[in-house]
# Entry
Amino acid sequence: MPKIIDKGAEARLLGSTFLGVDVVIKDRVRKNYRIEEIDSSIRKERTRSEARIMCAASACGARVPLVLWVGSSVLVLTRIYGAMLNRLVEGGRADGQDLFGIMSDAGRQLALLHRNGIVHGDYTTANIIVDRQHKAWIIDFGLGELTSSLESRAVDVLLMKRSVSAALYSCFLESYLSSRGYDDADKVVARLADIERRGRYQKRTLG
Ligand SMILES: Nc1ncnc2c1ncn2[C@@H]1O[C@H](COP(=O)(O)OP(=O)(O)O)[C@@H](O)[C@H]1O
Ligand SMILES: [Mg+2]
# Structure
């Protein structure tokens, strides 16, 4: 019997096995406040979009769960065992050295996605699982996009910046900037600075 392992904003996650492999079933549940037909088409579209992006990410060699099956509101993904990065960062459960290595890995993974035209859309420590070998696995492509937009890529970097300390961020950024075969990183970081400037400007004008 599948067991609920987690509940997200729009989906429940069930643990099960499929073809002899440990999997999670990401089941987007019905929202009662939406008209039924609209609700089911939204769930279907998001499920398909997430599957498409995760498959693209796998194809370029990024460390993401494999998509084993796609239903109308259900994805079956290989299950990754480990700890969520946000818990490791908050709880101090990994020592400093490990966290720096993991953040570099997260930076490399993001550069690999961006180099291949994939934007994650919610690249925070809450969407990274760290396995026993201290490798970062990227999950939750529900807000992802296949785009080369500099602005969207900059937002990925910005979300990570906001989710960790300055020291961890600098480690992440250094590896994002120095990833092989990815030449746009400087432009992305320049755009990020623009976004932050705009943010400050808005705050000022809003008083
Ligand atoms: N492939 C996976 N392997 C193990 N756990 C997973 C996997 N996918 C999701 N989870 C767990 O389920 C939680 C919610 O999944 P996520 O895809 O982030 O959904 P949501 O879009 O609701 O945030 C994650 O934080 C993680 O704990
Ligand atoms: Mg999530």
About this structure: The pocket of magnesium ion (ligand 2) is lined by residues 8, 126-127, 140 (CB under 6 Å). The two ends are 55 Å apart (CA to CA). The chain has two domains: 3-78, 83-205.
